[in-house]
Amino acid sequence: MEIRLKRLLNIGFGSLIIMGSIACNNEKLTKHEDDLETKIDSVLSLMTLKEKIGQMNQYSGGWEVTGTPSDIDTQTKLEKLKNGEVGSMLNVLTAKETREAQEVVMTHSRLKIPLIFGYDVIHGYKTMFPIPLGESASWDLNAMEKSAQIAAKEAAASGQHWTFAPMVDVSRDARWGRIMEGSGEDPFLASKIAVARVKGFQGDDLASENTIAACAKHFAGYGFGEAGRDYNTVNIGEHELQNSILPPFKAAANAGVATFMNAFNEIDGTPATADKYLQRDLLKGEWGWDGFMVSDWGSIAELIPHGFAKDRTDAARIAVEAGSDMDMEGRAYEVGLETLVHENKVDVALIDDAVKRILRVKFRLGLFDDPYRYSNTEREKSEVYTNENRDIARDVAKKSIVLLKNQNHILPLDKNIKSLAVIGPLANDKDTPIGNWRAQGEANSAISVFEGIQDAIGDDTRIFYEKGVDLGVGERSFLAPLKINTTNKTGIESAVKAAKLAEVVVMVLGEDAFQSGEGRSQTQISFAGFQQELLEAVYAVNKNIVLVLMNGRPMEISWSAAHLPGILEVWQLGSEHGHAVADVLFGNYNPSGKLPVSFPRSVGQEPFYYNQKNTGRPADNGEVTFSHHTDASNDPLFAFGFGLSYTTFKYSEVKLSASTLKPGETVTASVALTNSGNRSGKEVVQLYMRDLVGSITRPIKELKGFEMVSLEPGESKTVTFEITPELLQFYTANKKWETEAGDFHVFIGSDSRVSTFAELEYVTP
Ligand code: BGC
User: Suppose 764 and one of 177, 605, 672, 741 were both cysteines; which one would form an S-S bond, judging by CB atoms 3.0 to 4.6 Å apart?
Assistant: First the structure.
């Protein structure tokens, strides 16, 4: 593959010609990187301090670059672009507008260093894929890589160079609104998904016009805010940070993610944006990562309200020393850095390091070859929101659905069922399926569940639709608080009438798209508004209910789990939502999803996760003095890793190739898996381990491997996992990653509740 690096930088007092054509194969890779560094150094050597600081400055768009500036601030921005005082912009949309903004820089600025355009392409650009938490329920790494690839292709065709995704924050708290944007509660699964998404966005050549730079965020600890409240204080120890939070970031760094974003929260008194250990010592030092760190929106200036910096200049000093390379809309670097350098309060070497990192990503994206290559209106027309992309979205969507309950085989439904009622505020909702982080996804553009069902059933089925009640009322938008309907429940009566007429009721309940997402933490995770009342009224007249649950977080659905025969967790599945739901409802697709988060019995149990510690009092001693809540069982309502199929699977006992493992060796653990039902189906076989005694206390179980297996009825396969000493590593009391000698339990099963195990000992000389 050829990457042409060819650039003529025209500058007022001389010119620098950088030319090259480098074959990007393995042998030449090192040379390529050496050449790249030479080019970066050449550019840096031409830059004034002001221009260097300019590269570290990022503005949000949403304004007419070429039109009449609407206010002085916009005018200032434009002037700064012309002066080379802006390195990046976010939220400048479409091929046309990105081209216009780039033209300002390429025409007027002295060094003509191209802008890098960033945007939150979280689960699709215009073709919307399932929200990341939902997609994670597929446990299908290829499908997730593919969805990121399509998102990148559409974004790149529309002028974007860079997405602020994937969010790789592990979260164990269903109250946190942004749990929808991650991959759940497990660091092992999150690490695998992080890599798949980075590969999907970036491909193997950042300079290709179909790929964009990815961003691992939010570094670090953002998913652990107290009480699940967004932006809140994080109080965790070093071991929790290392063992539970950092692994997906490390995996993303190893996979070559181009950028990182830091976080709004503090950890144990230090705001993440100001954390030198995390950003400079660990990520850029120990891990040897060479991309750049963008701040979160305004997070450098937020060091002031954190009580960590006295003003913007002080905030700029702290952030640059800590290793934040680019200031997203914080206006701290532009205000403070120049003076700080002139007064010898900030070493210019720190600025140079940041600028080199930013230039490196711009070079890798090929922006110095052609700053306009991504801003192509023709490609934007032909490659965005195509039927082909929507087909791929439907495929990922159906794989993300989790069958939680299927009593008496109420599912799949017969396509020729005589009568069906489709009821609920979300049943014909065409907007919630595209989620909260919807990029260019058009409002009300998804296939609703009702539409999907209509497309799937035969002509002879009588179908009744009733909304029952409204859920969200009034304005629904990214920044507006959502108002829940708590006044009008007049529609319940007609819903009950419809339910009486139908053989089966598909109830579509859950959350509005704007109940989860940034700034949307909740203290309650049960059905909001009149949904529970509607459900119970329908149940009173017809018990054949399949609950289709649409939501961005685990919900408290104990009543439904106890009473309803069928429950499908469908999340918010994107553009093809309703078709994917119908695929599963009518058995065109046999559900294969597994929960990436535990469902609690009650919100009071949050944070709630399977890989918890044992405590000193784990066992039910028949008295009150063991670790539990007196009003709820410690067992999850639905466990991490859980998901049913229309067929059944039988597991044999776990077999180990040896009962001891030594350094440098591998032991295999295997089971025979049989499809014991009468449909072909897919099962995600999961390997868990428990380290019985450690230099720090260890979780009662940890996911260590998984594999998706397809089996025909009656077919068996042996599934084998390799256990190496590296797989058993953790951040020990010695403050390093290592494997400790001792005993381990090895479990292989269908979800995190698996209880039979084989014993393995790790022996060191
Ligand atoms: C979010 C980031 C996002 C950024 C830019 C912030 O509020 O925390 O995740 O990438 O805004 O939109």
Answer: 741
Residue 26 pLDDT level (bands cut at 50, 70, 90):
low
Concerning whether 296 is annotated as a catalytic residue, the answer is yes
Strand partners, 402: 569
Residue 488 included in any domain = yes
The Cα 397–Cα 449 span in angstroms is 13
* In-domain check, residue 132: no
Pairing type for strands 667-675 and 649-651 reads antiparallel
Q: What is the pLDDT of residues 735-764, one digit of tens each?
A: 999 999 999 999 999 999 999 999 999 999
Give the pLDDT confidence of 412-434 residue by residue, as tens digits: 999 999 999 999 999 999 999 99
pTM above threshold 0.85: yes
The CB-based long-range contact list for 486-494 (8 Å cut-off, 24+ gap) reads 486/529, 486/530, 489/530, 489/533, 489/534, 491/466, 491/467, 492/468, 492/530, 492/533, 492/534, 492/537, 494/466, 494/468
Residue 124 lies in a domain: no
The count of C-alpha atoms lying within 13 angstroms of the C-alpha of 12, restricted to the half-sphere facing its C-beta, is 6
User: Which residue among 296, 325, 583, 751 is the active-site one?
Assistant: 296
Domain count, the chain: 2
**Centroid of ligand 1 to alpha carbon of 119 (angstroms):** 9
Is residue 458 one of the residues assigned to a domain? yes
**CA of residue 297 to ligand 1 center, whole Å:** 6
Round to whole Å and give the CA distance between 568 and 556.
14
- pLDDT of 509 over the 80 cut: yes
What is the distance between the alpha carbons of residues 598 and 612, in angstroms, rounded to a whole number? Answer: 11
The span from the CA of 590 to the CA of 347, in Å, is: 60
Query: Domain range spanning residue 695?
Result: 649-762
User: Are residues 738 and 597 part of one domain?
Assistant: no
SS3 80: helix
Q: Which residue has the least CA distance to atom 10 on ligand 1? A: 164
